[in-house]
Amino acid sequence: MVIANPDKYLLPTYRLSPFSTADVALNHELPSEDYAETYFGERFAPRRYKYCMSGREAIHQALTHYHLQPDDVVTIITTTNNFYISSCVTNEIGRFCKWSRKIEQATKVLFVNHEFGYPVEDMDALVKHGLPIIEDCAYSFLSHNAAGNTGHLGDFTIYSFPKIFPVQIGGLLTMKDDLDDEKFSQQLLPNQEHDYIQKVASHFLRKIADIASQRIENYHFLVNGLTSMGFSERIPLSDGIVPGACLFRNNGLLNLPELKEALWEKGIQCSIFYGEDTFFIPVHQVLKKPDLTYFLSNIKINLK
What we know:
By secondary structure, the protein is α/β, with parallel strands linked by helices.
């Protein structure tokens, strides 16, 4: 049942991240462990890695390596080639230099954004440009492209734990083992934050297969409901893809700014994939079918 007019102080809160208020206490009670060191050491070998407070801090650390000047350009490449890009990315690049969506004469670095769990497929073509590459896998920790090289070709690769785990903080930066960066070994985090991120990551990494499976199941449930209303998939799932959000084409059915406002008023974090008639809603592993039905019901109400 959808409550038509809930008290504004009693709204549910559905984030794109799986984090909820209850996780503050749950994560605090987790035992200390270092399984994450084993997992990351095996997964990213021979790359080096380090924890950061956030994905944004990881981006900053990676950009610092290149000693960029104000007139230099970082070119942003995305999976869909839509002009939408998070301000978290553009604002961070803007602290160093200019950014562009195409390769310019002044381009010094390619910033490859594997959007919403959908990796860029032809990474080899980008490598051929001979420019340094930073890979943004904030939403794509669980995904890989057909070649299996997502996150492994860039000088640096960025991950964001709140995009995949129910946690408030935590990022990961990996770097090519043969890259010379004397600052990389410096600890970015106070010991308390480092230990917290390590134990929470260790706990949820043991559940990584279940997390991926549940996200895929949730995605198919949402897409089935959305297509029955006349919407359609923006990017079909293929082998190796674990969605970071459920993107769907509006097909001209709704006024998307009005839909965004209506869903936020019901406690559902969502947004327009600006530049297209496309929208996205949460799909993470913590959501149950009643939650997903709540999303679909609130979208359907706006069709009337």
